[in-house]
Amino acid sequence: MARSGAVLGVGVIAAVGAGGMATAKDRPPAPISLPDLSPVTDKLPAIDSLVGGSNDVSATASRAPLSQAGLTTDEIAQGADAGEALRARIMRQAEQQQSVAETTERLAAEQAAREKAAEDAAAKKAEAEAAKKKAAEEAERKAAEEAARKAEEERLAKLAASYALPLSSYTLTSSFGESGSMWSSSHTGQDFAAPTGTPVKAVHGGTITEAGWAGSYGYRIILTLDDGTEIWYCHLSSMTVTSGEVTTGDTIGRVGSTGNSSGPHLHLEVRPGGGDPVDPAAWLREHGKSI
């Protein structure tokens, strides 16, 4: 009968739940009718002989009131109520879950902050590298421009050393491309007015390929440079060199007013490759000489 009572107690606990057990002691027990099982139970061996000791669990369960179901031994010793104990356990579990949630959220926020800091650092590093690269490129560009400028200066200096103006003293008169009654079309050269007999110089080293009378050009000398450019010296009063090689600055003739001329001057023409004439002033500037 002790074992039957324990089973009955467990059944009642399962039926009413923990909350119901908290108030079960306030209700009168329901009448239960059980058959007489003594003929069967008297023949069963004692539980102590089966488990090697007294049935403490069954005894405790049969002795414990329903209001103490589900309590630990310490809770029973402290006189705890089953409902209050359950509520306390639920509260502790909720607090633990809240703590875990807060910790998870804090760790996630810290991880996000670390990732954001890493992204910002990477962005700043990339920006600094880009600025450094841009500064280096700008410095390289300026250095290249400076080098090009110096190279051009050196080139012009060399040209200036290897080229010369046709006259040391002169006055510019008719320019390239001008129109007038003196020419059949436009003016094909640059006029340098100077007194008759003023020395005329080779503008660059080359070879005298022609010298003599040339109709409206008067006395003319053609100096051919190494690149094929022809320099025409016209209206000369005399020709000092009529053939052979000359160097920059050599006197090759003298200013005059022969041919179709209105007064003593040098008519200078520049013909690249022996072709059509170009502006002598621009050509001289390209070679480091300005007039």
Automatic annotation (TrEMBL):
Domain M23ase beta-sheet core: 186-280
One GO MF term attached to the UniProt entry: metalloendopeptidase activity
Disordered: annotated segments: 257-280
Pfam families: Peptidase_M23
Keyword Coiled coil included in the entry's annotation: yes
Keywords: Coiled coil
Coiled-coil annotated residue ranges, if any: 100-162
Domain of life from the UniProt record: Bacteria
PANTHER family per the UniProt record, alphabetical: MUREIN HYDROLASE ACTIVATOR ENVC (PTHR21666:SF270), PEPTIDASE-RELATED (PTHR21666)
Protein name: M23 family metallopeptidase
Spans traversing the lipid bilayer: none
